[in-house]
Design brief:
2 helices; Alpha-Beta Plaits; four-stranded antiparallel β-sheet; 101 residues; alpha+beta
């Protein structure tokens, strides 16, 4: 099992709109792709004041080929849309992890 994690730092001005985008656009796209086994959206519980909010958007894939196809067919387009819509108010980094236990 592979975890594809995207960690977002959001300016408070766009947090509500980003949450709607994540729910209505991103997760719908991801689940409709047929490649994603399961998903989670987590929010960091404790943050420094005035630094916005941090979220972890997690997608689980059963096979490397599913992740690779998802990245090519869906992910790059979704992140382009995110950048156009939110600009520097929603910055992110991505990691890929193997589930061990």
């Amino acid at each position: 099992m592979i975890l594809f994690n995207t960690t977002f730092n959001l300016d408070t001005a766009v947090e509500a709109a980003w949450l709607q985008w994540a729910r209505d656009v991103y997760f719908t796209l991801a689940l409709d792709s047929g490649y994603v086994h399961k998903h989670h959206l987590m929010k960091l519980r404790y943050e420094d004041e005035n630094n916005g909010s941090t979220y972890s958007l997690q997608l689980f894939f059963e096979k490397d080929t599913h992740l690779e196809k998802f990245l090519v067919e869906y992910e790059f387009k979704a992140m382009e849309e995110l950048s156009m819509r939110f600009g520097a108010n929603a910055v992110y980094f991505q990691t890929m992890l193997d589930v061990v236990i």
